Amino acid sequence: MSETTPASAAVEAAGEPFRYSAALAAEIESRWQDVWEKEGTFNAPNPAGALADPTAGDVTAKPHSFIMDMFPYPSGAGLHVGHPLGYIATDVYARYQRMTGHNVLHTLGYDAFGLPAEQYAVQTGTHPRVSTEANIANMRQQLRRLGLGHDSRRSISTIDPEYYRWTQWIFLQIFNSWYDADAAKARPIAELVAQFEDGSREVPGGRAWSELSGAERDDILGEYRLAYAKEVPVNWCPGLGTVLANEEVTADGRSERGNFPVFKSNLRQWMMRITAYSDRLIKDLDLLDWPEAIKLQQRNWIGRSEGARVDFAVDGDAITVFTTRPDTLFGATYMVLAPEHGLVDSIVPAAWPEGIREDWTGGAATPAEAVAAYRAESAAKSDVERQVDAKIKTGVFTGAYAVNPVSGEDVPVFIADYVLMGYGTGAIMAVPAHDHRDFAFARAFGLPMRCVVEPTDGRTENPAEWDDAFDTYDSVIVNSAHDGLALNGLSVVEAKAAVTSWLAEQGIGEGTVNYRLRDWLFSRQRYWGEPFPIVYDEDGVMHALPESMLPVEVPEVDDYSPHTYDPFDSTSSPKTPLSRNEDWVTVELDLGDGVKTYRRETNTMPNWAGSCWYELRYVDPVNGERAVDPANEQYWLGATAEKPAGGADLYVGGAEHAVLHLLYARFWHKVLHDLGHVSSVEPFHKLFNQGMITADVYRDERGFPVPAAEVEERDGKYFWQGEPVKREAGKMGKSLKNAVAPDEIADEYGADTLRLYEMSMGPLDVSRPWDTRAVVGSYRFLQRLWRNIVSEDTGELVVTDEPADEATLRALHKAIDGIRGDMANLRFNTAVAKAIELNNFLVKRGSTPRAVAEQIVLLVAPLAPHIAEELWRRLGHNGSLAYADYPVADPAYVVDETVTCVVQIKGKVKARLEVAPSISDAELETLALAAPAVVAAIGDAPVRKVIARAPKLVNIVTG
């Protein structure tokens, strides 16, 4: 490439070949993108393996920076300008890090399994792989046009068999592990089996391990494995024919996709025992540089609470509850079970007890009928609906009574949908005088209330007269004594300790910790997902496939859709697409004891699976021997003094992933750490949540969105096809018909303009509205930058070889100092503002010294890399500036020549002095007292005191 590569014929044909126009920008950008790709400009060398570079020297001696974006899903709709906000930001930061001497790992992969591609396949017959790979190709092209400096060798896709081979391998590590609470870590399941075999650990049930059948051993190990299959309450959607995760169910109990009813149903599913890691997932948040709001959301989601487990006897069995307020046990006047609770059927009597209230029965002839009807009703509600604190509570009496363990009283047992199996034990002791929901339920069903915590707000002790429950920790216990257990007069804290100790002595309870977090539902009845590497023998015993048989590839099927049912058929059960390929399902394998016939697992993993570990594969993407080489993992992710738990140096993405993705990824990483596969404890050290780009939405009189680009504004009102429409703020997206494609902006102004505009719109972590009309401001800045260095008439350099004067040097170095700080702290909007200010200074100056021109090009390079590369080359430099040293400010020019000192007399400003920043307090006092305005203001009054605070303030006290 010559020093002044001529513009393309298309640019020359435009009539202004040397003016920075959209055509010239397109030519420059395409050419430099080709150079970067051909030369592997952004390839980051590894310490070991195939991506090691012998010419790079010892990379471990060089500081590194691992920068990640959250996995995108390759949608068929392509990108709109809101999507690249985070990608551009991480690219700017990555380029800055390279220019400050770091070995930078920055790439982008695709989270490509999931429901959208499967539904498209159902509708069109197009194989999900075909449509997904086409979407990936389109997205890659759009992102390439933005000039993102990715190491393309490291880009991965979750649908690549060589990637999901290792997803399946990690699943097997989890499946073949158990959590040793004593060691507080995961250990291989083989060690647990060895303990059962040698008798060092008692086998549940008391029999010898050798006496158990394969199925019996399988059942026991399933109670320990970190990945296990079990019948559990799930969100079953007959209309989609699949089980849904909680996040896939709307607040009104319908599927997010398709708007079908969702029911609670007990089905056999794969689960991940993430609950074993609850305490570590909370504790290790303190080691991470994450927004406090995100940490709080994770802590709340895990929901750690201390309390007591209490057994209430019922019909020869016991209902176990978890309560954080065992001090109120004497106030428990009834119990409530979740409708799905396993004890409900066994405690329901054949007939109603005599004399019960009619409204307790739900109008049913028998308790069994009442329970069945209420279960059907509650199954149609989502967990969110069931937890809404509505004034009207619903429920039904089971016909059974339990015994309050501290008072010996019989208390009726109800089922009600405000109690969930997902929290505690799925059963509560109801203390209506001191719990708001219990109070509402007791009012609705005429149940007794007993005050056991002395009111301190002027109430009487008769809860029947209250408007609501009295709930406090700051009081003493009353009405709580029976058979040697007396809590009266104790504080809440003292009473909790006393009753917990008493329960343990009686063998009917103990102090315990409970969590809101539930084990992770890890299976879907879908086609387009990772198959499980599990097979079943003729006895139904599950077997993990050996590593040599991985990957288990997604098979071909005739029909991609799961078997669907009447949307309201809550009694139906899943039939998976994979089960239709019998040749794949039934397989003959030799798993070490001869060839036998097995049946494969026909559920698939959820789309979360592939995104749980992709940071590790970025580190070592072409390793065929292991998921990641320890040397590479240690280099890029290992713990340091700055990041004590290790992990990627920067992870940028939306706050909507605050809990689920981040929690799941942390869990997988910790298991791999426990098993010795990775050195780091956490996957992501620093997390940054970028804001969202919003856009105006226009709706017609029906409330339907209309194309925003076709709306006209007249006299402050908006019209589409002559009809009035309403404007509102909203997200940008295809469904709202307000999406703006990045290609459109790049066509009109160039990709560098788009990058610069998105970075200048506001702080990166704040949402901001898109305004296409404002893009031109960024375009004009780049045009002015170009004119300061290149003649629009001849294409020749217009920089001078004269040295910069002091004013120019001060403007330059102040800009350098400010922009470096902004770049390091992701304040790109203020970095852009400082660059514009410096460039405007040069415009007013009339000429640009070469040394200053080179510095401003380097300053702007991370933000607008294409024009910077072109100007750098035209300034006479060979090679890319991607690894050029980022400018460093000279402190001598950063400090102002003078600062303004305010002189006050009795608190009122009397003079302003221009003084040197280095002036001493004594010198400043002398100058202030000699200033004519100060002398006149003091007059004949004596000066009692002078307080000098160099260099900005002098306060004089007179009189």
Task: Characterize the structure shown.
The protein has 959 residues and is an alpha+beta fold. Among the domains are: 40-158 and 609-689, 3-Layer(aba) Sandwich (Rossmann fold); 305-514, Isoleucyl-tRNA Synthetase, domain 2 (Alpha-Beta Complex), CATH 3.90.740.10; 896-958, Ubiquitin-like (UB roll) (Roll). Strands 24, 25, 26, 27, 28 and 29 form a 6-stranded mixed β-sheet that branches. The chain has a 4-stranded parallel β-sheet with strand order 2-1-22-23, sandwiched between helices. Helix 2 crosses helix 20. The radius of gyration is 35 Å and the shape is globular. Residues 1-13 have low confidence and may be disordered.
Secondary-structure blueprint:
Blueprint: H1 9-13, H2 22-39, E1 64-69, H3 85-99, E2 103-106, H4 115-124, H5 128-145, H6 161-175, E3 177-180, E4 185-188, H7 189-198, H8 214-222, E5 227-237, E6 242-244, E7 263-272, H9 278-283, H10 292-302, E8 305-314, E9 317-323, E10 334-337, H11 344-347, H12 367-379, H13 383-387, E11 396-403, E12 410-415, E13 427-430, H14 436-445, E14 481-482, E15 485-486, H15 492-506, E16 509-514, E17 520-521, E18 534-536, E19 542-544, H16 582-585, E20 586-590, E21 595-600, H17 614-619, H18 630-637, E22 650-653, H19 660-674, E23 687-689, E24 693-699, E25 705-706, E26 712-714, E27 717-720, E28 723-731, H20 742-749, H21 751-760, E29 768-769, H22 775-787, H23 806-824, H24 828-845, H25 850-860, H26 865-874, H27 891-894, E30 899-905, E31 908-915, H28 921-930, H29 932-938, E32 943-949, E33 953-958
Parallel strand pairs: 1-2, 1-22, 10-12, 22-23, 24-29, 30-33
Antiparallel strand pairs: 3-4, 5-6, 5-7, 7-17, 8-9, 8-16, 10-13, 11-12, 14-15, 18-19, 18-21, 20-21, 24-25, 24-28, 26-27, 27-28, 30-31, 32-33
Helix pairs in contact: 2-20, 2-26, 4-5, 20-21, 21-22, 23-24, 23-25, 25-26
